Protein backbone atom coordinates (compact mmCIF):
# COMPACT_ATOMS: atom_id res chain seq x y z
CA UNK A 1 0.00 0.00 0.00
CA UNK A 2 2.95 2.33 0.47
CA UNK A 3 4.83 4.18 -2.24
CA UNK A 4 8.43 5.32 -1.99
CA UNK A 5 9.10 8.94 -1.11
CA UNK A 6 11.76 11.02 -2.87
CA UNK A 7 15.09 11.87 -1.36
CA UNK A 8 16.29 15.27 -2.46
CA UNK A 9 19.42 16.01 -4.50
CA UNK A 10 20.34 19.68 -4.82
CA UNK A 11 22.11 21.61 -7.58
CA UNK A 12 24.41 24.44 -6.62
CA UNK A 13 23.10 27.75 -7.94
CA UNK A 14 26.24 29.85 -8.04
CA UNK A 15 29.80 29.89 -6.79
CA UNK A 16 31.75 32.89 -5.56
CA UNK A 17 34.09 32.60 -8.53
CA UNK A 18 31.32 32.99 -11.10
CA UNK A 19 29.35 36.04 -9.96
CA UNK A 20 28.56 38.39 -12.84
CA UNK A 21 29.12 42.16 -12.79
CA UNK A 22 25.91 43.89 -11.75
CA UNK A 23 25.93 46.19 -14.81
CA UNK A 24 25.95 43.32 -17.35
CA UNK A 25 22.29 42.31 -17.93
CA UNK A 26 23.21 39.41 -20.24
CA UNK A 27 25.44 38.01 -17.50
CA UNK A 28 22.68 38.63 -14.97
CA UNK A 29 20.24 36.59 -17.09
CA UNK A 30 22.80 33.83 -17.62
CA UNK A 31 23.33 33.53 -13.85
CA UNK A 32 19.83 34.11 -12.48
CA UNK A 33 17.11 33.86 -15.13
CA UNK A 34 14.42 31.43 -13.87
CA UNK A 35 13.30 30.38 -17.34
CA UNK A 36 15.79 27.70 -18.52
CA UNK A 37 15.48 28.54 -22.23
CA UNK A 38 16.08 32.27 -21.68
CA UNK A 39 18.93 31.42 -19.38
CA UNK A 40 20.55 29.17 -21.98
CA UNK A 41 20.15 31.90 -24.61
CA UNK A 42 21.81 34.47 -22.33
CA UNK A 43 24.73 32.15 -21.50
CA UNK A 44 25.24 31.45 -25.21
CA UNK A 45 25.48 35.20 -25.82
CA UNK A 46 28.19 35.40 -23.15
CA UNK A 47 30.07 32.46 -24.67
CA UNK A 48 29.78 34.05 -28.15
CA UNK A 49 32.01 36.87 -26.91
CA UNK A 50 34.92 34.46 -27.15
CA UNK A 51 38.26 35.87 -26.09
CA UNK A 52 36.49 38.93 -24.78
CA UNK A 53 35.67 36.95 -21.64
CA UNK A 54 38.18 35.45 -19.21
CA UNK A 55 38.49 31.68 -18.73
CA UNK A 56 36.93 32.02 -15.30
CA UNK A 57 33.89 33.92 -16.68
CA UNK A 58 33.53 31.50 -19.60
CA UNK A 59 33.66 28.66 -17.05
CA UNK A 60 30.84 30.40 -15.21
CA UNK A 61 28.75 30.66 -18.37
CA UNK A 62 29.19 26.93 -19.07
CA UNK A 63 28.33 26.22 -15.45
CA UNK A 64 25.11 28.26 -15.56
CA UNK A 65 24.09 26.82 -18.91
CA UNK A 66 24.69 23.34 -17.48
CA UNK A 67 22.32 24.18 -14.63
CA UNK A 68 19.65 25.30 -17.10
CA UNK A 69 20.08 22.18 -19.22
CA UNK A 70 19.88 20.03 -16.10
CA UNK A 71 16.62 21.77 -15.18
CA UNK A 72 15.32 20.67 -18.60
CA UNK A 73 16.56 17.10 -17.86
CA UNK A 74 19.03 17.32 -20.72
CA UNK A 75 21.64 15.62 -18.56
CA UNK A 76 24.11 14.71 -21.32
CA UNK A 77 24.41 18.31 -22.55
CA UNK A 78 24.53 19.56 -18.94
CA UNK A 79 27.49 17.23 -18.24
CA UNK A 80 29.29 18.55 -21.33
CA UNK A 81 28.88 22.11 -20.00
CA UNK A 82 30.20 21.10 -16.55
CA UNK A 83 33.14 19.34 -18.27
CA UNK A 84 34.02 22.56 -20.04
CA UNK A 85 33.53 24.65 -16.91
CA UNK A 86 35.94 22.35 -15.03
CA UNK A 87 38.46 22.45 -17.89
CA UNK A 88 38.42 26.24 -17.81
CA UNK A 89 38.33 26.49 -13.99
CA UNK A 90 39.58 23.25 -12.35
CA UNK A 91 38.90 24.64 -8.87
CA UNK A 92 35.18 25.27 -9.45
CA UNK A 93 33.85 22.88 -6.75
CA UNK A 94 30.20 23.61 -7.58
CA UNK A 95 30.74 22.36 -11.15
CA UNK A 96 32.04 19.02 -9.84
CA UNK A 97 29.07 18.74 -7.46
CA UNK A 98 26.50 19.54 -10.15
CA UNK A 99 28.12 17.24 -12.67
CA UNK A 100 27.92 14.54 -10.00
CA UNK A 101 24.23 15.29 -9.59
CA UNK A 102 23.65 14.82 -13.30
CA UNK A 103 25.55 11.53 -13.28
CA UNK A 104 23.30 10.54 -10.39
CA UNK A 105 20.22 11.41 -12.46
CA UNK A 106 21.63 9.12 -15.18
CA UNK A 107 22.10 6.37 -12.52
CA UNK A 108 25.88 6.44 -12.96
CA UNK A 109 26.41 6.35 -9.22
CA UNK A 110 30.15 5.64 -9.14
CA UNK A 111 30.89 8.61 -11.43
CA UNK A 112 28.58 10.76 -9.29
CA UNK A 113 30.39 9.86 -6.06
CA UNK A 114 33.77 10.59 -7.67
CA UNK A 115 32.57 14.10 -8.54
CA UNK A 116 31.10 14.70 -5.08
CA UNK A 117 34.41 13.56 -3.55
CA UNK A 118 36.30 16.06 -5.73
CA UNK A 119 33.89 18.89 -4.89
CA UNK A 120 34.29 18.24 -1.14
CA UNK A 121 38.08 18.04 -1.48
CA UNK A 122 38.09 21.43 -3.20
CA UNK A 123 35.62 22.98 -0.73
CA UNK A 124 35.10 21.03 2.53
CA UNK A 125 32.33 23.48 3.49
CA UNK A 126 30.17 22.76 0.44
CA UNK A 127 27.09 21.50 2.30
CA UNK A 128 25.06 20.47 -0.74
CA UNK A 129 27.95 18.28 -1.99
CA UNK A 130 27.79 16.31 1.26
CA UNK A 131 24.00 16.08 0.89
CA UNK A 132 24.26 14.85 -2.68
CA UNK A 133 26.98 12.31 -1.94
CA UNK A 134 24.84 11.11 0.96
CA UNK A 135 21.98 10.59 -1.45
CA UNK A 136 24.19 8.57 -3.81
CA UNK A 137 25.39 6.41 -0.91
CA UNK A 138 21.79 6.01 0.25
CA UNK A 139 20.91 4.66 -3.20
CA UNK A 140 23.74 2.15 -2.87
CA UNK A 141 22.39 0.99 0.48
CA UNK A 142 25.32 2.43 2.47
CA UNK A 143 23.09 4.04 5.07
CA UNK A 144 25.69 4.75 7.74
CA UNK A 145 27.98 6.69 5.37
CA UNK A 146 24.91 8.46 3.93
CA UNK A 147 23.90 9.57 7.43
CA UNK A 148 27.46 10.76 8.08
CA UNK A 149 27.33 12.92 4.94
CA UNK A 150 23.90 14.35 5.79
CA UNK A 151 25.20 15.12 9.28
CA UNK A 152 28.15 17.02 7.80
CA UNK A 153 25.75 18.95 5.58
CA UNK A 154 23.61 20.11 8.53
CA UNK A 155 26.72 20.80 10.64
CA UNK A 156 27.95 23.18 7.94
CA UNK A 157 24.46 24.62 7.35
CA UNK A 158 22.14 24.12 10.38
CA UNK A 159 19.25 25.55 8.34
CA UNK A 160 19.59 22.97 5.57
CA UNK A 161 16.05 21.51 5.70
CA UNK A 162 16.54 19.16 2.72
CA UNK A 163 19.55 17.50 4.36
CA UNK A 164 17.57 16.96 7.58
CA UNK A 165 14.79 15.42 5.49
CA UNK A 166 17.24 13.16 3.65
CA UNK A 167 18.90 12.08 6.90
CA UNK A 168 15.43 11.29 8.21
CA UNK A 169 14.87 9.05 5.17
CA UNK A 170 18.11 7.17 5.91
CA UNK A 171 17.12 6.70 9.55
CA UNK A 172 13.68 5.56 8.40
CA UNK A 173 15.33 3.01 6.12
CA UNK A 174 17.29 1.75 9.13
CA UNK A 175 14.00 1.52 11.01
CA UNK A 176 15.31 4.05 13.54
CA UNK A 177 11.93 5.72 13.63
CA UNK A 178 12.51 8.10 16.53
CA UNK A 179 15.65 9.60 14.94
CA UNK A 180 13.84 9.82 11.61
CA UNK A 181 10.94 11.70 13.21
CA UNK A 182 13.39 14.04 14.97
CA UNK A 183 15.06 14.86 11.62
CA UNK A 184 11.77 15.44 9.82
CA UNK A 185 10.61 17.64 12.70
CA UNK A 186 13.77 19.73 12.41
CA UNK A 187 13.22 20.13 8.66
CA UNK A 188 9.65 21.28 9.34
CA UNK A 189 10.85 23.68 12.05
CA UNK A 190 13.24 25.25 9.53
CA UNK A 191 10.61 25.33 6.77
CA UNK A 192 7.01 25.04 8.06
CA UNK A 193 5.77 24.71 4.48
CA UNK A 194 8.04 21.80 3.61
CA UNK A 195 5.39 19.33 2.42
CA UNK A 196 7.88 16.53 1.72
CA UNK A 197 9.04 16.54 5.34
CA UNK A 198 5.45 16.33 6.58
CA UNK A 199 4.94 13.44 4.19
CA UNK A 200 8.07 11.62 5.39
CA UNK A 201 7.24 12.19 9.04
CA UNK A 202 3.74 10.92 8.39
CA UNK A 203 5.31 7.77 6.92
CA UNK A 204 7.45 7.33 10.02
CA UNK A 205 4.46 7.70 12.32
CA UNK A 206 2.57 5.24 10.09
CA UNK A 207 5.41 2.75 10.46
CA UNK A 208 5.25 3.24 14.25
CA UNK A 209 1.51 2.49 14.01
CA UNK A 210 0.84 5.95 15.42
CA UNK A 211 -1.86 6.48 12.82
CA UNK A 212 -3.43 9.57 14.37
CA UNK A 213 -0.14 11.51 14.17
CA UNK A 214 0.41 10.20 10.65
CA UNK A 215 -3.03 11.50 9.67
CA UNK A 216 -2.23 14.88 11.26
CA UNK A 217 0.88 15.19 9.06
CA UNK A 218 -0.97 14.12 5.92
CA UNK A 219 -3.67 16.66 6.81
CA UNK A 220 -1.01 19.37 6.81
CA UNK A 221 0.20 18.35 3.36
CA UNK A 222 -3.36 18.48 2.03
CA UNK A 223 -3.76 21.91 3.63
CA UNK A 224 -0.55 23.12 1.97
CA UNK A 225 -1.37 21.44 -1.32
CA UNK A 226 -5.07 20.42 -1.69
CA UNK A 227 -4.33 18.76 -5.03
CA UNK A 228 -1.66 16.42 -3.66
CA UNK A 229 -3.05 13.02 -4.67
CA UNK A 230 -0.16 11.14 -3.01
CA UNK A 231 -0.91 12.72 0.37
CA UNK A 232 -4.57 11.80 0.05
CA UNK A 233 -3.62 8.23 -0.84
CA UNK A 234 -1.29 8.06 2.17
CA UNK A 235 -3.91 9.46 4.51
CA UNK A 236 -6.30 6.87 3.13
CA UNK A 237 -3.72 4.20 4.04
CA UNK A 238 -3.62 5.49 7.62
CA UNK A 239 -7.40 5.39 7.89
CA UNK A 240 -7.27 1.88 6.39
CA UNK A 241 -4.80 0.81 9.09
CA UNK A 242 -7.27 2.14 11.68
CA UNK A 243 -9.95 -0.04 9.97
CA UNK A 244 -11.88 3.15 9.14
CA UNK A 245 -12.56 1.89 5.61
CA UNK A 246 -15.19 4.49 4.75
CA UNK A 247 -12.81 7.40 5.37
CA UNK A 248 -10.05 5.53 3.57
CA UNK A 249 -12.28 5.07 0.52
CA UNK A 250 -13.21 8.75 0.61
CA UNK A 251 -9.51 9.73 0.46
CA UNK A 252 -8.77 7.22 -2.31
CA UNK A 253 -11.77 8.61 -4.21
CA UNK A 254 -10.33 12.12 -4.03
CA UNK A 255 -6.83 10.94 -4.97
CA UNK A 256 -8.29 9.23 -8.04
CA UNK A 257 -10.37 12.29 -8.93
CA UNK A 258 -7.20 14.40 -8.87
CA UNK A 259 -5.18 11.78 -10.76
CA UNK A 260 -7.38 9.37 -12.75
CA UNK A 261 -4.24 7.42 -13.75
CA UNK A 262 -3.17 6.77 -10.16
CA UNK A 263 -3.11 2.95 -10.27
CA UNK A 264 -1.91 2.54 -6.68
CA UNK A 265 -4.90 4.49 -5.36
CA UNK A 266 -7.24 2.21 -7.32
CA UNK A 267 -5.49 -0.82 -5.80
CA UNK A 268 -5.68 0.61 -2.30
CA UNK A 269 -9.35 1.44 -2.69
CA UNK A 270 -9.86 -2.12 -3.86
CA UNK A 271 -8.29 -3.40 -0.63
CA UNK A 272 -10.61 -1.20 1.41
CA UNK A 273 -13.63 -2.53 -0.47
CA UNK A 274 -12.32 -6.07 0.11
CA UNK A 275 -12.27 -5.49 3.84
CA UNK A 276 -15.87 -4.31 3.62
CA UNK A 277 -16.78 -7.49 1.73
CA UNK A 278 -17.72 -5.53 -1.42
CA UNK A 279 -16.05 -7.86 -3.91
CA UNK A 280 -17.72 -6.34 -6.99
CA UNK A 281 -16.18 -2.94 -6.17
CA UNK A 282 -12.84 -4.67 -5.55
CA UNK A 283 -12.94 -6.21 -9.00
CA UNK A 284 -13.92 -2.88 -10.60
CA UNK A 285 -10.99 -1.08 -8.92
CA UNK A 286 -8.39 -3.70 -9.82
CA UNK A 287 -9.73 -3.80 -13.39
CA UNK A 288 -9.13 -0.05 -13.62
CA UNK A 289 -5.64 -0.46 -12.15
CA UNK A 290 -4.93 -3.14 -14.78
CA UNK A 291 -6.18 -0.83 -17.53
CA UNK A 292 -3.70 1.83 -16.33
CA UNK A 293 -0.86 -0.66 -15.80
CA UNK A 294 -1.46 -3.89 -17.77
CA UNK A 295 1.79 -5.40 -16.42
CA UNK A 296 0.93 -5.04 -12.75
CA UNK A 297 1.23 -8.56 -11.32
CA UNK A 298 -0.13 -7.28 -8.00
CA UNK A 299 -3.34 -6.04 -9.64
CA UNK A 300 -3.98 -9.34 -11.42
CA UNK A 301 -3.15 -11.26 -8.26
CA UNK A 302 -5.44 -9.16 -6.07
CA UNK A 303 -8.30 -9.19 -8.56
CA UNK A 304 -7.92 -12.95 -8.65
CA UNK A 305 -8.27 -13.01 -4.86
CA UNK A 306 -11.50 -11.02 -5.18
CA UNK A 307 -12.89 -13.49 -7.72
CA UNK A 308 -11.84 -16.28 -5.36
CA UNK A 309 -13.71 -14.62 -2.49
CA UNK A 310 -16.81 -14.50 -4.72
CA UNK A 311 -16.44 -18.20 -5.48
CA UNK A 312 -15.64 -17.52 -9.15
CA UNK A 313 -12.63 -19.80 -9.21
CA UNK A 314 -12.38 -20.00 -13.00
CA UNK A 315 -11.85 -16.23 -13.32
CA UNK A 316 -9.57 -16.26 -10.30
CA UNK A 317 -7.33 -18.89 -11.89
CA UNK A 318 -7.26 -16.89 -15.14
CA UNK A 319 -5.99 -13.81 -13.25
CA UNK A 320 -3.40 -15.81 -11.32
CA UNK A 321 -2.27 -17.35 -14.63
CA UNK A 322 -1.75 -13.85 -16.05
CA UNK A 323 0.17 -12.70 -12.97
CA UNK A 324 2.44 -15.74 -13.35
CA UNK A 325 2.87 -15.09 -17.08
CA UNK A 326 3.99 -11.52 -16.36
CA UNK A 327 6.29 -12.62 -13.53
CA UNK A 328 6.99 -16.37 -13.36
CA UNK A 329 8.75 -15.83 -10.02
CA UNK A 330 5.76 -14.24 -8.26
CA UNK A 331 5.28 -16.71 -5.43
CA UNK A 332 2.05 -15.13 -4.16
CA UNK A 333 0.23 -15.89 -7.42
CA UNK A 334 1.22 -19.57 -7.26
CA UNK A 335 0.00 -19.77 -3.66
CA UNK A 336 -3.30 -18.11 -4.54
CA UNK A 337 -3.83 -20.25 -7.62
CA UNK A 338 -3.22 -23.20 -5.32
CA UNK A 339 -6.06 -21.96 -3.12
CA UNK A 340 -8.35 -21.84 -6.17
CA UNK A 341 -7.43 -25.41 -7.17
CA UNK A 342 -7.94 -26.46 -3.55
CA UNK A 343 -11.43 -24.97 -3.64
CA UNK A 344 -12.13 -26.96 -6.81
CA UNK A 345 -11.09 -30.16 -5.01
CA UNK A 346 -8.05 -30.51 -7.32
CA UNK A 347 -5.59 -31.17 -4.51
CA UNK A 348 -2.77 -32.40 -6.77
CA UNK A 349 -2.77 -29.16 -8.77
CA UNK A 350 -2.98 -27.21 -5.50
CA UNK A 351 0.06 -29.05 -4.14
CA UNK A 352 1.97 -28.39 -7.38
CA UNK A 353 1.29 -24.64 -7.08
CA UNK A 354 2.15 -24.47 -3.37
CA UNK A 355 5.36 -26.39 -4.13
CA UNK A 356 6.34 -23.85 -6.78
CA UNK A 357 5.59 -21.01 -4.35
CA UNK A 358 7.94 -22.44 -1.72
CA UNK A 359 10.57 -23.27 -4.34
CA UNK A 360 10.61 -19.58 -5.34
CA UNK A 361 10.44 -18.43 -1.73
CA UNK A 362 11.65 -21.11 0.71
CA UNK A 363 10.61 -18.86 3.62
CA UNK A 364 6.97 -18.62 2.51
CA UNK A 365 5.36 -20.03 5.67
CA UNK A 366 1.76 -19.53 4.49
CA UNK A 367 2.36 -21.61 1.35
CA UNK A 368 3.79 -24.45 3.46
CA UNK A 369 0.71 -24.25 5.69
CA UNK A 370 -1.59 -24.31 2.66
CA UNK A 371 0.23 -27.28 1.16
CA UNK A 372 -0.22 -29.03 4.50
CA UNK A 373 -3.97 -28.47 4.16
CA UNK A 374 -3.93 -30.09 0.71
CA UNK A 375 -1.97 -33.11 1.97
CA UNK A 376 -4.47 -33.41 4.82
CA UNK A 377 -7.34 -33.46 2.32
CA UNK A 378 -5.56 -36.35 0.59
CA UNK A 379 -5.25 -38.07 3.99
CA UNK A 380 -1.45 -37.90 3.73
CA UNK A 381 -1.07 -37.05 7.41
CA UNK A 382 2.70 -37.34 7.67
CA UNK A 383 3.31 -34.96 4.76
CA UNK A 384 0.76 -32.57 6.24
CA UNK A 385 2.62 -32.58 9.56
CA UNK A 386 5.94 -32.04 7.75
CA UNK A 387 4.57 -28.96 5.96
CA UNK A 388 2.98 -27.47 9.07
CA UNK A 389 6.25 -28.08 10.93
CA UNK A 390 8.19 -26.24 8.22
CA UNK A 391 5.80 -23.30 8.43
CA UNK A 392 6.32 -23.20 12.20
CA UNK A 393 10.10 -23.45 11.78
CA UNK A 394 10.03 -20.43 9.45
CA UNK A 395 7.66 -18.50 11.71
CA UNK A 396 7.61 -19.83 15.29
CA UNK A 397 4.78 -17.38 16.05
CA UNK A 398 2.49 -18.77 13.35
CA UNK A 399 -0.46 -19.71 15.55
CA UNK A 400 -2.61 -20.97 12.65
CA UNK A 401 0.05 -23.49 11.59
CA UNK A 402 0.28 -24.74 15.18
CA UNK A 403 -3.50 -25.15 15.25
CA UNK A 404 -3.39 -26.98 11.93
CA UNK A 405 -0.63 -29.36 13.02
CA UNK A 406 -2.56 -29.98 16.23
CA UNK A 407 -5.58 -30.97 14.15
CA UNK A 408 -3.53 -33.62 12.33
CA UNK A 409 -2.14 -34.99 15.57
CA UNK A 410 -5.71 -35.17 16.85
CA UNK A 411 -6.77 -37.03 13.73
CA UNK A 412 -3.93 -39.48 14.41
CA UNK A 413 -5.27 -39.79 17.99
CA UNK A 414 -2.04 -38.33 19.34
CA UNK A 415 -4.03 -36.14 21.69
CA UNK A 416 -1.19 -35.01 23.96
CA UNK A 417 0.81 -33.68 21.00
CA UNK A 418 -2.31 -32.01 19.68
CA UNK A 419 -2.97 -30.36 23.05
CA UNK A 420 0.62 -29.11 23.19
CA UNK A 421 0.30 -27.45 19.76
CA UNK A 422 -3.07 -25.90 20.61
CA UNK A 423 -1.62 -24.60 23.88
CA UNK A 424 1.24 -22.87 22.06
CA UNK A 425 -1.18 -21.36 19.52
CA UNK A 426 -3.26 -19.99 22.41
CA UNK A 427 -0.17 -18.62 24.13
CA UNK A 428 0.74 -16.75 20.95
CA UNK A 429 -2.83 -15.58 20.34
CA UNK A 430 -5.04 -15.63 23.45
CA UNK A 431 -7.99 -14.52 21.28
CA UNK A 432 -7.72 -17.57 18.99
CA UNK A 433 -11.20 -19.04 19.54
CA UNK A 434 -10.68 -21.92 17.12
CA UNK A 435 -7.57 -23.09 18.98
CA UNK A 436 -9.55 -23.23 22.23
CA UNK A 437 -12.28 -25.16 20.41
CA UNK A 438 -9.81 -27.63 18.90
CA UNK A 439 -8.04 -28.18 22.24
CA UNK A 440 -11.42 -28.78 23.86
CA UNK A 441 -12.09 -31.50 21.26
CA UNK A 442 -8.77 -33.17 22.14
CA UNK A 443 -9.63 -33.13 25.86
CA UNK A 444 -13.10 -34.48 24.97
CA UNK A 445 -11.57 -37.33 22.98
CA UNK A 446 -9.37 -38.17 25.98
CA UNK A 447 -12.50 -38.28 28.14
CA UNK A 448 -11.39 -35.23 30.14
CA UNK A 449 -14.75 -33.48 30.00
CA UNK A 450 -13.97 -30.84 32.64
CA UNK A 451 -10.99 -29.48 30.69
CA UNK A 452 -12.99 -29.79 27.47
CA UNK A 453 -15.82 -27.73 28.96
CA UNK A 454 -13.38 -25.07 30.18
CA UNK A 455 -11.96 -24.69 26.65
CA UNK A 456 -15.36 -24.77 24.96
CA UNK A 457 -16.44 -22.03 27.37
CA UNK A 458 -13.49 -19.88 26.35
CA UNK A 459 -14.25 -20.52 22.67
CA UNK A 460 -17.87 -19.35 22.98
CA UNK A 461 -16.79 -16.39 25.09
CA UNK A 462 -14.47 -15.28 22.26
CA UNK A 463 -16.95 -16.19 19.54
CA UNK A 464 -20.52 -16.08 20.90
CA UNK A 465 -21.92 -17.07 17.50
CA UNK A 466 -19.99 -20.34 17.27
CA UNK A 467 -22.87 -22.79 17.24
CA UNK A 468 -20.56 -25.80 16.87
CA UNK A 469 -18.72 -24.91 20.09
CA UNK A 470 -22.03 -24.67 21.97
CA UNK A 471 -23.03 -28.04 20.50
CA UNK A 472 -19.74 -29.66 21.48
CA UNK A 473 -19.91 -28.26 25.00
CA UNK A 474 -23.45 -29.60 25.22
CA UNK A 475 -22.10 -33.05 24.26
CA UNK A 476 -19.47 -32.81 27.00
CA UNK A 477 -22.11 -31.89 29.60
CA UNK A 478 -24.31 -34.75 28.40
CA UNK A 479 -21.42 -37.21 28.70
CA UNK A 480 -20.96 -36.00 32.27
CA UNK A 481 -24.65 -36.58 32.90
CA UNK A 482 -25.32 -32.84 33.34
CA UNK A 483 -28.42 -32.81 31.17
CA UNK A 484 -29.58 -29.40 32.35
CA UNK A 485 -26.48 -27.62 31.07
CA UNK A 486 -26.51 -29.74 27.91
CA UNK A 487 -30.09 -28.62 27.20
CA UNK A 488 -29.06 -24.97 27.74
CA UNK A 489 -26.20 -25.33 25.24
CA UNK A 490 -28.32 -27.11 22.64
CA UNK A 491 -30.91 -24.35 23.03
CA UNK A 492 -28.19 -21.83 22.15
CA UNK A 493 -27.35 -23.88 19.07
CA UNK A 494 -31.02 -23.70 18.03
CA UNK A 495 -31.05 -19.95 18.69
CA UNK A 496 -28.05 -19.52 16.40
CA UNK A 497 -29.09 -22.08 13.76
CA UNK A 498 -32.87 -22.51 13.94
CA UNK A 499 -33.06 -24.37 10.63
CA UNK A 500 -30.55 -27.11 11.52
CA UNK A 501 -32.31 -30.39 12.24
CA UNK A 502 -29.45 -31.97 14.22
CA UNK A 503 -29.66 -29.20 16.84
CA UNK A 504 -33.23 -30.21 17.72
CA UNK A 505 -32.24 -33.88 17.70
CA UNK A 506 -29.41 -33.18 20.17
CA UNK A 507 -31.62 -31.23 22.55
CA UNK A 508 -34.33 -33.87 22.27
CA UNK A 509 -31.76 -36.53 23.20
CA UNK A 510 -30.80 -34.55 26.30
CA UNK A 511 -34.44 -34.19 27.34
CA UNK A 512 -34.93 -37.92 26.75
CA UNK A 513 -31.84 -38.81 28.82
CA UNK A 514 -33.01 -36.60 31.69
CA UNK A 515 -36.50 -38.10 31.56
CA UNK A 516 -35.16 -41.67 31.43
CA UNK A 517 -33.08 -41.09 34.55
CA UNK A 518 -36.14 -39.81 36.41
CA UNK A 519 -38.43 -42.75 35.60
CA UNK A 520 -41.24 -43.94 33.34
CA UNK A 521 -43.42 -41.64 31.28
CA UNK A 522 -46.47 -42.05 33.51
CA UNK A 523 -44.75 -41.61 36.89
CA UNK A 524 -45.09 -37.80 37.11
CA UNK A 525 -45.99 -34.70 35.16
CA UNK A 526 -42.39 -33.49 35.42
CA UNK A 527 -41.16 -36.65 33.70
CA UNK A 528 -43.90 -36.42 31.06
CA UNK A 529 -42.88 -32.82 30.35
CA UNK A 530 -39.33 -33.90 29.56
CA UNK A 531 -40.52 -36.73 27.30
CA UNK A 532 -42.89 -34.32 25.55
CA UNK A 533 -40.10 -31.76 25.06
CA UNK A 534 -37.97 -34.53 23.58
CA UNK A 535 -40.81 -35.64 21.30
CA UNK A 536 -41.39 -32.08 20.05
CA UNK A 537 -37.68 -31.64 19.29
CA UNK A 538 -37.44 -34.91 17.37
CA UNK A 539 -40.63 -33.99 15.54
CA UNK A 540 -39.13 -30.63 14.52
CA UNK A 541 -35.92 -32.31 13.38
CA UNK A 542 -37.96 -34.59 11.11
CA UNK A 543 -39.93 -31.63 9.71
CA UNK A 544 -36.66 -29.87 8.86
CA UNK A 545 -35.08 -33.04 7.45
CA UNK A 546 -37.53 -35.81 6.44
CA UNK A 547 -34.57 -38.14 5.79
CA UNK A 548 -33.08 -37.79 9.27
CA UNK A 549 -32.97 -41.46 10.29
CA UNK A 550 -31.66 -40.84 13.80
CA UNK A 551 -34.52 -38.44 14.57
CA UNK A 552 -37.05 -41.11 13.51
CA UNK A 553 -35.25 -43.64 15.73
CA UNK A 554 -35.31 -41.22 18.67
CA UNK A 555 -38.95 -40.24 18.22
CA UNK A 556 -39.76 -43.94 18.18
CA UNK A 557 -38.17 -44.23 21.63
CA UNK A 558 -40.62 -41.62 22.95
CA UNK A 559 -43.52 -43.53 21.44
CA UNK A 560 -42.12 -46.63 23.14
CA UNK A 561 -41.92 -44.84 26.50
CA UNK A 562 -45.61 -44.00 26.03
CA UNK A 563 -46.30 -47.69 25.17
CA UNK A 564 -47.46 -46.62 21.69
CA UNK A 565 -45.85 -49.62 19.98
CA UNK A 566 -47.56 -49.11 16.65
CA UNK A 567 -46.16 -45.59 16.13
CA UNK A 568 -42.81 -46.62 17.60
CA UNK A 569 -42.43 -49.49 15.14
CA UNK A 570 -43.55 -47.21 12.27
CA UNK A 571 -40.77 -44.72 13.11
CA UNK A 572 -38.15 -47.49 13.44
CA UNK A 573 -39.30 -48.79 10.04
CA UNK A 574 -38.74 -45.31 8.56
CA UNK A 575 -35.31 -45.01 10.15
CA UNK A 576 -34.32 -48.41 8.67
CA UNK A 577 -35.79 -47.49 5.26
CA UNK A 578 -33.62 -44.36 5.19
CA UNK A 579 -30.51 -46.17 6.48
CA UNK A 580 -30.83 -49.92 5.80
CA UNK A 581 -27.65 -50.66 7.80
CA UNK A 582 -28.79 -48.81 10.93
CA UNK A 583 -27.97 -51.49 13.52
CA UNK A 584 -29.19 -49.48 16.52
CA UNK A 585 -32.62 -49.03 14.92
CA UNK A 586 -32.90 -52.81 14.38
CA UNK A 587 -32.01 -53.36 18.05
CA UNK A 588 -34.57 -50.79 19.23
CA UNK A 589 -37.30 -52.12 16.96
CA UNK A 590 -36.57 -55.58 18.26
CA UNK A 591 -37.21 -54.37 21.80
CA UNK A 592 -40.55 -52.92 20.69
CA UNK A 593 -41.53 -56.22 19.12
CA UNK A 594 -40.55 -58.02 22.33
CA UNK A 595 -42.51 -55.56 24.49
CA UNK A 596 -45.47 -56.29 22.20
CA UNK A 597 -44.97 -60.07 22.73
CA UNK A 598 -43.58 -60.78 19.23
CA UNK A 599 -40.30 -62.53 20.22
CA UNK A 600 -39.71 -64.03 16.76
CA UNK A 601 -39.60 -60.61 15.08
CA UNK A 602 -37.58 -59.29 18.01
CA UNK A 603 -35.00 -62.07 17.55
CA UNK A 604 -34.94 -61.45 13.78
CA UNK A 605 -34.18 -57.74 14.32
CA UNK A 606 -31.40 -58.45 16.82
CA UNK A 607 -29.92 -61.00 14.44
CA UNK A 608 -29.77 -58.29 11.75
CA UNK A 609 -28.18 -55.87 14.21
CA UNK A 610 -25.54 -58.53 15.02
CA UNK A 611 -24.92 -59.12 11.30
CA UNK A 612 -24.31 -55.40 10.84
CA UNK A 613 -22.18 -55.02 14.00
CA UNK A 614 -20.94 -58.46 15.12
CA UNK A 615 -18.58 -57.05 17.76
CA UNK A 616 -21.29 -55.39 19.86
CA UNK A 617 -21.83 -57.47 23.02
CA UNK A 618 -25.05 -55.62 23.89
CA UNK A 619 -26.82 -57.03 20.88
CA UNK A 620 -26.03 -60.62 21.93
CA UNK A 621 -27.21 -59.91 25.48
CA UNK A 622 -30.52 -58.47 24.28
CA UNK A 623 -31.10 -61.34 21.86
CA UNK A 624 -30.31 -63.75 24.69
CA UNK A 625 -33.10 -62.18 26.73
CA UNK A 626 -35.51 -62.64 23.81
CA UNK A 627 -34.53 -66.30 23.53
CA UNK A 628 -35.11 -66.65 27.26
CA UNK A 629 -38.55 -65.09 26.84
CA UNK A 630 -39.29 -67.84 24.29
CA UNK A 631 -38.00 -70.52 26.66
CA UNK A 632 -34.97 -71.30 24.44
CA UNK A 633 -32.42 -71.45 27.25
CA UNK A 634 -29.77 -73.08 25.04
CA UNK A 635 -29.73 -70.22 22.51
CA UNK A 636 -29.98 -67.68 25.32
CA UNK A 637 -26.93 -69.12 27.11
CA UNK A 638 -24.99 -69.20 23.86
CA UNK A 639 -25.70 -65.46 23.30
CA UNK A 640 -24.87 -64.54 26.91
CA UNK A 641 -21.56 -66.43 26.64
CA UNK A 642 -20.74 -64.60 23.38
CA UNK A 643 -21.49 -61.25 25.01
CA UNK A 644 -19.29 -62.13 28.00
CA UNK A 645 -16.44 -63.12 25.70
CA UNK A 646 -16.63 -59.88 23.71
CA UNK A 647 -16.67 -57.80 26.88
CA UNK A 648 -13.61 -59.63 28.13
CA UNK A 649 -11.82 -58.83 24.87
CA UNK A 650 -12.93 -55.23 24.54
CA UNK A 651 -13.62 -53.99 28.03
CA UNK A 652 -17.05 -52.75 29.05
CA UNK A 653 -18.89 -50.91 26.27
Describe the structure.
It is a single chain. With 653 residues, the protein is an all-alpha fold. The chain is 77% helix and 0% strand. The chain has a domain at 584-653: Tetratricopeptide repeat domain (Serine Threonine Protein Phosphatase 5, Tetratricopeptide repeat), CATH 1.25.40. It is elongated and about 140 Å long.
Could you list some keywords that capture this structure?
653 residues; mainly alpha; Serine Threonine Protein Phosphatase 5, Tetratricopeptide repeat; 36 helices
Task: Determine the strand fraction and express it as a percent band.
Answer: under 5%
Helical fraction: over 70%
Spans where pLDDT lies below 50 across 5 or more residues = 1-11, 13-20
The CATH homologous superfamily of the domain at 584-653 is called Tetratricopeptide repeat domain
Rg, rounded, reads 40 Å
Class of the domain at 584-653 in CATH?
A: Mainly Alpha
Give the overall pLDDT as a whole number.
Answer: 94
Q: Supply the number of helical segments.
A: 36
